[in-house]
Each structure stands twice: as C-alpha cells, then as structure tokens.
Amino acid sequence: MLRCIxxxxxxxxxxxxxxxxxxxxxxxxxxxxxxxxxxxxxxVRDALSVAASFGDRSLIASVVENVRLTPDRADGIxxxxxxxxxxxxxxxxRAVAAARALAATxxxxxxxxxxxxxxxxxxxxxxxxxxxxxxxxxxxxxSLTEFQRNYSLDAMHVDAALAEDLTGDDxxxxxxxxxxxxxxxGSVHPEFAGRIDPRSTSFLxxxxxxxxCHSADLSWCxxxxxxxxxxxxxxxxxDSQDQNSHGTHVAGIVGAGENGFGMQGVAPDAIILxxxxxxxxxxxxxxxxxxxxxxxxxxxxxxxxxDDCQPIGGDEAATTKAxxxxxxxxxxxxxxxxFGPDTSEGSTTWDLGDAEDQDHLISEAQAMRQNxxxxxIIVMAAGNSRLEAPIYSENPSGNGLYPFLQPGNQGATxxxxxxxxxxxxxxIDLSFTSATALAAAEAADGIARGRxxxxxxxxxxxxxxxxxxxxxxxxEWCVSxxxxxxxxxxxxxxxxxxxxxxxxxxxxxxxxxxxxxxxAAPNVAGAIAVLIEAYPTxxxxxxxxxxxxxxxxxxxxxVDAVYGWGLVRLDRALSVGPVGMSGTGTYTVGAGGxxxxxxxxxxxxxxxxxxxxxxxxxxxxxxxxxxxxxxGGLLTVDxxxxxxxxxxxxxxxxxxxxxxxxxxxVEGTLSPGNSPGTMTITGDVTLTATATTRIEIDGTGxxxxxxxxxRIIVQGAGSVFTAGGTLAPVLRGIPGSATNGxxxxxxxxxxxxxxxxxxxxxxxxxxxxxxLPAATRFDVLYDPAALSLTVTPLSYADLGANxxxxxxxxxxxxxxxxxxxxxxxxxxxxxxxxxxNTLYTADAAALEDGFSTLTGQVHxxxxxxxxxxxxxxxxxxxxxxxxxxxEHLSARGTPFGTGEVWAAGEIAATDIGTRGALAGADVxxxxxxxxxxxxxxxxxVGLAASYEYADVSAGVNGSGDVDSYHGGLxxxxxFGPVALALRGGLTWGDLSTGRTTSLGGYTAAATAxxxxxxGFAEATAFHAFETPAVTIxxxxxxxxxxxxxxGMDETGSVFALSVPDQRFDxxxxxxxxxxxxxxxxxxxxxxxxxxxxxxxxxxxxxDRTTQLGILxxxxxxxxxxxGADAFLxxxxxxxxxxxxFALGASYQAELRDNLTSHTFSAEASFRF
Length: 1168
Prior knowledge:
The chain is an alpha/beta fold. It contains 20 helices and 56 strands. Helix 2 packs antiparallel against helix 3.
C-alpha cells in the first residue's frame, strides 16, 4: 500500500499526510493548513478537525505536539480529540501520555522521539546556529531574492554552481509524481516555461480535486451526484494536470527557473519530464453514500462507475509503469521519486505484505533495474514516519531500501530487536538494484549503470527534520538535504525555531511551502542534474560518488546511520573534478593559476593539459585515454592517473604519493611524494637533459610525511627508468610535516628509485646547502634495478676530515680514486659501477677498518721478496767463492782432482716491522743450490743453479708466493796481495698474490699471477792473512741486484688493482772480515769453524715503493721503510771427513733498521 512521503504542514511533529489503501498515493500540506491550538474550545476542536482531515496519523501527531507544547491544556486536547475520533481513543490516550512525558523531560525543546535517534534538545549546539534566510519564517518572503526563498540553495551552496554557469542546462530529469502544473490550453507554470519535456505523460486519469474529500470520516464529506462525478473526469482547458500540488512543488525544487520572480530551483535550466503516477489522495462520496478512493478513480477512469477498470498502460502499478516508461529514453539522466509505503502508528517493521504485494515490489524493482541499466540515477525520498513510528524510521522504507532487500538481510533487526523488514519467509531478493550488483554488471560488459540514492530531510538548522526517517542500513547510498520542518509558523509561542518549510511552485502559477522528505529528494535530483552538466563524461556511478564524498559530514563522524554521507554540497562537488570536461579533446586546467583538487575518480576519452602556476591534486582514480601534459605548475597525484603518455614540460612539476600509469617524460621537475613520500609509476620514466629530480630526505622511513624520504617506484614488465638532467636532494626547507632536522650519516644510503631496469645517468647533482655532515657530499649508486643517494666523503684522500685515520698508502689510493671519481650524481664508467657502489656505501667504521685492505701493499712485499731471492743466491755464491779461496770447505793440498761438486740448502726467515703506520711482512724462504767448480793455479771458476720458494705474509695486506729459478757463474783469482772474486747470475720468477678486500659488508679475494726476470753482478776483493792461531780474511764487495716484474692485473674483486711492470733493484757495498781455525780430531776428521761479521750499505729504493693502478689512475704504494745499513753476521762449521768429502753448516743474520733476517744453511761437497 503506497502513501505520500511529503507533507509536514503544521509543526515539527505534525505530519499532514493523507493515507490511502492503494499504491501510488501521496499528499503534502502547505504552510497555510492549520492554526495553532491556543484554547481548549472551540479552537482546539477546529484545529484537531482540520488535522483529522489529513488522516489518523496527522491527528495523532497534532495531539502529541500540542500537548507537549502546552501540557497544561492536555486534558482539554485529549477530550476534544476523543470526541472527534472515539475509535482512536486508545491511541489518543497514549499520545497524550507520551507528550506529557516529553514535555517534562525536554521543556521548550525542539526534538523528536529519542528512541529513533532524533535531533538533540535545543540546549545542545546546532550544526547551523542561524537559519538560512529563506528558512526563517520571521523574514518576509518579499524581502528575499528568488534564490533565498528556497533555502535549500543556500544550504547546498548552489551559488557555486551558478557562479560557473552550471544550471543543469538541457539535463532531462524525470519526475514521477502527481503531475505538474500544465494545462490543456498549453499554458504552464511560468517557472517551467519552455522546459517541460513534451514526452511528459500520465498513467492516471485526471480527476477534479474539488470533488475529493480528504477526511477519514466519510460522514463529514459532501456527496456528489453521478453526473457530477462523471464531470469530474473532464479536464477543462485551464485545469492543471496536478490536482494535488505535490508534483509541481517537487518539480519546482528540481528546476524552477532563474527568472527574477517566485523562487528558484537547484537546476534552473533542467528539462522536466513529468510522469503522473501518484494519486492526489482522498475519496469521492456519492450522494447515495457510496464512495471510491481517488486512487481507484484515477487508475481506472470513468469506467470504474460501470465496474470496468481501464488503467492507462496496463495493469501494473502506475509508478512501475512510470519507471518503465522513463527507461526507454537515453537522455533521461536522473529520476526523482518522492513517494513510498505507508505505515501505522507504533510500527517497528516494514511489512512487505503477502505474495501479491511482494510481486508488486519485485515488478517495480525490475522496472527500476531497467532505468539503472539505462544509466539513470534514481533519487528516492526516505519517508516521514518518525513521529508515529520512531523504531520503524531508523531506516528508510520503500524503493530507496530495495538494494537492502535480499536473503542475507532477511533477519536484520533494528534497535528494538524487531525485523527491519518482514518478507514472511519468502526470501525476497532485490539485490539486483544494489551498487554491488550494478558494478559487477559494469565490469562484465563495460556499460555504465545508474545508482539509487535515498534522501533524508533536514531543517534549516541542518538537523534531521522531526518527521524524517533515517539513513540506517542504507547509509552507504544515503544523503541529507533540507526538506523543511514547519514549527514556528504554527506555534509562534513555543520557543521552537522550526523553519518556513521549502518554498516552491504549486499549481495555478502559484507558490507555497511544504515539508517532507518529498521536498528533500528533488533537491538531490537537481544537484545531480547540475553535476551531470558539470561532468558530462562521467558515469552515473562517478557522479553519485562525487555527490557522496563531497557531502558535509553531519552527526557522528563519517558515514552514519542518521545522515548517511551528510549534507549535499554543490560547491564541494564542483571543486573535486574536471568541470566541463567533454569529448575526446584535451582538457585544460589551471590556466588561471589557481589550485584545483580532483577528489573523485573518472574516465575521459581525451587528454589532460595542466597549465598555469597553481596545483592540480588528483586524489582519486583518474583515466585519460589520450596523452597528457603538465605544461605549468604542479600536478600532484595522490590517487591514480592513467594516461598513455605524460609529458612534464619545463615549466611543470609532477609529484604526489599516488600512482601514475603512463610513459612519463620529464623535461621539468619530478618531485615524488608530499614532503616526503612515495610515487608509483607503471611504465617507462625518461628524464631529459632539462629535467630536475627533487628528492626530499627527512629520515630513513619509506612511508609518507615526517621521518621519511621521497621514492619513485617504477612497475611494469620491461619498464625502464632513464636517468638524466639534474638530481637535487633536499634536507632542509621541506614543506609539510617534515622535521627538517634529519642529518644523514656517512655511508647512509636512500633508495629513491626502484625499477625493473635503470639506464642513463644524471648529468649533475646539486648538493644541499645545509644538512649534510661536514666534509661529505651526496653521490648516486647506480644499480641495474635501483638508484640510491648515499652520503660519501668529500675526498677519499682526506678521510681525516671525516675523523678517519689514513696511512700514506691509503692517502695515495684515495688520491687515485678522487681523480677517477665521477662528478657527483654521474654514472661511473662501465665496469666501475660496482666499485663505486661498494665504496660509497661504506660508513666511517667500514672505512676505518677496511680501506687499508684496498691498498695492495702485498705487491711491494712480493716484489721485494723476489729481489731478496736474487740476493740470497748471490750471497750463496759469494760465500762459496770465499770458502774455496780459504779452503774452508775441503782438505788442503789434496791429491785428488781440481773439480768439486757441491750442494747447499737454506731456510730463511725475514721479518719486516711496522713503520709509519705501514704494516710490515714476514717472508719464509726455502732454497736449494747445486754447483760445480774447478780450481786452477791461483784461481777457480764455477757454475751453479738454484730454486727457491718464498712465502710472503703481509697480514691484512694479503699474501704472496715467489717461485724463483736462478743460474749463475763465478770465478776468482789470487793476485797475491789481493784476490778478486767475480760472480753474476740470472733469475726467472713466478709471482702470485692474494689479498682479501673488505669494506663494510663487502668481502672478496683479489688475486694476481705474474712473472719477472732478474739478475745480479758482484765483485769482491779479499786477502787471507795466516797466523799461527787463525786465518783472517777481510773482504770488500760491491754489487748490483735487480728484479723486473712484468705487469699483471688482479681479478676477483671490485677493488682489483692493475700492477704495472716495474724494476726493483739495489746497489750495495759490503765490508766484512772472516776468522777461521782448523782443528784436527783424533779420528782424522778436521773441523774448521768460521766466523764473519760485516757491514752492508744499500743504495736505491730502501722505501720499497711500487706503482699500482685503480680506475685507470696510478698511485705509489710503499712498504714499511727499512734501514739502508745492515749488520751481517755468520757462524759456520765445516767438517772435512776425508780428502774428498766435506760437510758444512752455518747460521747467518742480517740486522738492519726494521728488518731482521735469519738464515740456516747446510752444504756438502765432493772433490773429484
């Protein structure tokens, strides 16, 4: 059973509604309906009689409100009401008791029933403390503009739309109601001149309102003859189609013209397609006492008098036919439905009725789905039952609640525990009208669908009107707008604010005020018409989304059960999207330099051009099918932007914390984040030579805001980030919530780009003026899939400025690195990236501990060991020559031949200490020598060969091996006063080195293998002095020793060095004296101990320096310095076992500043 939604015409709690027994009925009462009850009789009787003429509910509401306002007159009011309607005695008694309780609890308060969550008492703060001028009944209408007279326009800030010339121009709004003020002679209400769609129609027969009685007590109604009733179906030329005024009032709220008179609608240039489908209500009484409802008369027409019902357009309910009719017109964009079901006093549940009633609901819902499939937005009034049925009114009822009617909600209950709706177990399912079902259909076929919006009513204080039902379970598709709440005009002494009601058009070219959610819904329909004009390419879902998300929050924070999304605000709705964007061209925004925010998502077939100096902030999901440009100002994407290409011109900036799906080319500025934050880009990103990439760093976090740093995340298979232009990191002066106090540490890195692939290079990096630690700078780490900013030393040759100690070798290495180091931000040369990435991420502790491992000092030690191997072979031959001359190694005067074969072996240990912070090394060598010599007269000649293996250990500097192969010739001759010994030899060496390069978390072995060639030439002058006790042999030696290392390259580490070829040599002089003495044992063995001491002075590279290379630059690397002067000592013992065979052993020591060497040797010879 349908009834009207609109119609509070008395006071805040007086709902003047006429209830009928058939669907499609409606009524609303104007502000001139009743006078206040000021005396028990006869005024009370008259006022209650008028209220009763609008139905039982209106009478009960009048009793409640009048007793509450004047509790001292309660008995009189109760008595008069019972006289009028004795059949309602129980209900009247309960109403009086409730009103007395309310009066005692909330004296002089404007309130609704507490159980329904009604608005607070007047003692509490109001959302809008001052009524809008048009809502203030104390302000004469004559003093108001046509805009102000409909105070809904003020509440919804419609002036913002008018300022942009947005009036719903040519948007067709379907109004399903009681018709509109149009007449057979072609005349229309002047507010609609030229804007009533010729397709407007009626699914009800016209009937003269003058024959209709609105009293519930038919005995009060005047009877009419059959001829009079027949004549009632005849519409005269000047009779308005709308015999109720409700439809005309609703249409005026939608689109009354902006013409300087009367009042103005929300969309004054909209086209109204009026469909009459709601009866005027009431009954018609024949003079014989028979009666018929106007619903039946208007539905069936004159045939009803002959029991021949002739409904227009078929047997479906008129509203169902109206929905189906409008669904065929693609240009109808929005439909207003200010009607809904009736309820009874105290109801808690919407009873959906029997199977036949539910079939009607299903049929109407199916018709509405046709409208939704056609892309039409349906706006429905929530209902006006809160005064007589507060629990019931916790939710809307009627068409606006259809999306909720589905099996999953069958058992849903309200605050009383009662069912919200009762389908009597049928499991009715109207979920196909829900946004979820419509979105699924859109996803399946790509066709945009409409949406259902339900509307609750506010008064002029932005409080829920006393009669209005609430959003409840429909909160997600529910909004609030003014619907009027007429208290003050009828109760001026009550102290209640109330309002004038919503002033709008009524038939016969007139105007009047009404209240109800029927008046609220068309405000929303008009607002949607304006938004459709403003956003012509938006889908219905996008339009509705704008309406919702820009609403002014009322009541509890967020989308709540009373106000839903809140008060519709056109000014906000027009500030969140691209107003006027249409077609496939380029939409230009920002030309005036102002700031714009797009808070709602949409899809455009065109492109975007952001111009001007202002900011465009995209906060939702936006798609442009064509390429887009940022020519000027800032484009901030905090939602998402999809466009094939996005070019950021030299005057433009791209920023934000959202996502961009586009091939992005930046000629201007790329500034991700919102001080700071992360931007995600799906597609290639190319920074041109003119681009500037601004990266704000306020901490180590990867989120948004204070304590974080900017990041660019590039997604999409095969997407490439191509660096170019200038990189500009920022540490201070960051806007927003940034602390601007963060100072990064040496070695700290910030990954500001992540991408499937990174190419290109920045041309420059501008260092922050403040914020970096002293003696540091920013550099960039270039990884295959990432770019990072890292804090590095200003100079690796001056790490002392960073509080890090350095050796000479580390300084030299640092100097070479500084020479090869690219300018800040520039990609290193191919093959050098890994080195710099590792180097740049080293913090102070890592550099302190690990930089020394990079110097390559082991190459000095290895080359020195090779040179000393040459020297050991030369010394061995020199000792052999002195031994032959002094016959220390064999029996004197032996008769055997002049030839002798000999062999010797040595174990040597050389230790070089630390000097000047340069570490030393330990060398362990083992060799074997084989020789053959001949004596002749006063001379001897010989040849020898040797192999030596030397193991070099340089601690953290690494280790090495030297395999050396030696060959030599020697000869001596005794000239008498002096003997001269000459010797020379050649050496081939195999060198290998290995060292562990370790810096921070990086550790790798660097190895090298190479060769070298060396030799020596020496001369010794000596003379043996024989004494009875000992033989003393002084000697003087001059010699040259050399080893030429071929070039080699290390492998295995990013810090691998190149080792160029280099000759290591030394020239030395030695002065020595040897003392020997032979002792013959009784067993025939002769022992001859020999002791010698000497002094040696070296000329040449005592600093032990080698040249090394890194990154194409060379640097000198030193070993720990050793002294040029050495003490040489030797103790030997020869055992001559026979005239042919001798054995010997010796210990030799070399002692010099920072070097000690100990050699143990053994020798055997055989004369032949």
